[in-house]
Amino acid sequence: MSILNNAVINYAHRGASGNYPENTMLAFAKAVEMGCDGIETDVQMTRDGVLVLIHDERVDRTTNGSGLVKDYSYAELCRLDAGLWYGASFAGAGIPRAEELLLLARDAGIRLNFEIKNGIVQYEFIEEKLIELIYSYGWQDLVILSSFNHYSMVHCKEIAPSLKTGLLYMEGLYRPGLYARTARADALHPYFYAVNEEIICEAHSEGLLVNTFTINDPAAMRRLVQTGVDGIITNYPDRLRSVMAELNCLNSN
User: Fold this and answer.
1) For residue 68, which of 78, 53, 58 has the smallest C-alpha distance?
2) Residues 72-89: what's their mean pLDDT?
3) Percentage of residues of the chain with pLDDT beyond 90
4) DSSP β-bridge partners for residue 111
5) Where does the UniProt annotation place the signal sequence (predicted)?
6) Which positions are catalytic?
7) Which of 223, 201, 202, 221 is nearest to 213 (CA)?
8) What is the pLDDT of residue 251?
9) How far is CA 141 from each of CA 131, 138, 160, 162, rounded to the nearest angstrom?
10) Which candidate, 48, 132, 182, 198, has a CA 20 to 30 Å from the CA of 239?
11) What is the sign, positive or negative, of the torsion defined by CA atoms of 70, 23, 208, 168?
12) How far is residue 240 from each of residues 157, 163, 168, 206, measured CA to CA in Å?
């Protein structure tokens, strides 16, 4: 069965990270320019309780620093360069605060997917801090929270029952739609190899969304759109926009 879903949400994975240093304001702004519908990013917390956007628990891969994010104060983190690793022309990019992305989202009118990174490092009260921040900007209706730590997602629902949550996973879960309901989740966020038409249909029958990651190949994008996913998380939001335009054109002929 082929389902053409014209409403597939184009989430830029860590911003337009295929062409710009991930999780920087430059990557986020470029994703908006490329026509994304939303931005997916990773939330961690500094030693002094500031919510920052960086994927790894350590700063080593994406900055010129070393060590765990949790061991840095925000002022210390600001002294690191988050662009130089990607190329000399990107030197000077910093690690953003969550507030900076919320401001961009509000100005651009886009959705946000905050992945809470609290698996390897357990950040105390990170859920409370992030949810309070989201509500302070009035962006709760355009945000979905996700995590590989499903206990965290249950906790988010305890704090803010109306805020959407998605369960991240890598492997083939059995009846994931039914499982997600036990966590009061609103969406499945599977690795794209772990999703198929049967899973999508079951999820939809349970009233769940399916937002899959990380798809960069146009052929895979096309297949997943036609299979009926609700959102695609990609490093190349411009590619996905082109695929969607192509499919919409084909559908209208």
Assistant:
1) 58
2) 98
3) 95
4) 38
5) none
6) 13, 55
7) 221
8) 44
9) 12, 8, 12, 9
10) 198
11) negative
12) 31, 27, 21, 27
